[in-house]
Amino acid sequence: MSFSDLDYQPIFLTLQLATVTVVVLLIIGIPIAWWLAHTRVRYRPFIEAVIALPLVLPPTVLGFYLLIMLGPNGWLGKTAMTVTGSPLSFSFTGLVIASTLYSMPFVVQPLHSAFEAVGKDPLEAAWTLGASKWNAFWTVASPLALRGYITAVVLGFSHTLGEFGVVLMVGGSIPGKTKVLSIEIYDRVETLDYSNAHALSAGLLIFSFLVLFLVYYINRRLPVRIS
Questions:
Q1: Per residue in 138-158, pLDDT tens?
Q2: Closest to 214 (Cα-Cα) out of 160, 137, 158
Q3: Assigned domain for 227 exists
Q4: Are 70 and 89 contacting, i.e. CB atoms less than 8 angstroms apart?
């Protein structure tokens, strides 16, 4: 197996994309998951269905509509054109937006389940002792929901690493800009470069297995909160 012409740039770009996406998803997903765990509004099933939609929707369908939305004639892409002079499609920022939407359920759902498992009793006890809602969330609810946080981060990161259809539709295959690892593997196969395609695929397979093994191992060692 020869690695002489192996391009490592897609690997670094993919890791960068996955890291940024997970950070954005945590910023957005934590409030959403907390709200879903505590709200009793009648339209909650609608919000849950929208968040879970990427689980059943073909990536090319989501990627197509994102491409329209982020393109120069789309409402978001046109706004970006006005502000920055360039559309969001076929850009790293566009990949982050697409990856955030596509990986949303893999972060929100574990956090939602973890927050529901915590229950209200620990929070009410903290409030009784004078803690603010913000302080109770970070010092009581979040530590008790640590399993959910770990699962959300690992699944969000791993899922972003393996994205293909959505990132191809939104970002294309621009070297050093939008060409991520999954697209690099596809291009290697298209050019019959099976040696390097195998090296990249095997590396991604081993990495994915290790991070999943790690999250299961850590979760088994963490104490279980029983409401």
A1: 888 999 898 899 999 999 999
A2: 158
A3: no
A4: yes
pLDDT averaged over every residue in the chain:
88
**68, 74 Cβ separation under 8 angstroms:** yes
Please check whether residue 140 is in contact with residue 189, taking contact to mean a CB–CB distance below 8 angstroms: no
Alpha helices in 85-164 (DSSP H): 92-118, 121-128, 133-136, 142-144, 146-161
For 95-122, the pLDDT digits (tens) are 999 999 999 999 999 999 999 988 888 8
pTM of the model as a whole: 0.87
Gap between the Cα atoms of 144 and 180, Å rounded = 36
Is residue 10 one of the residues assigned to a domain?
no
**CATH number of the CATH domain containing 148:** 1.10.3720.10
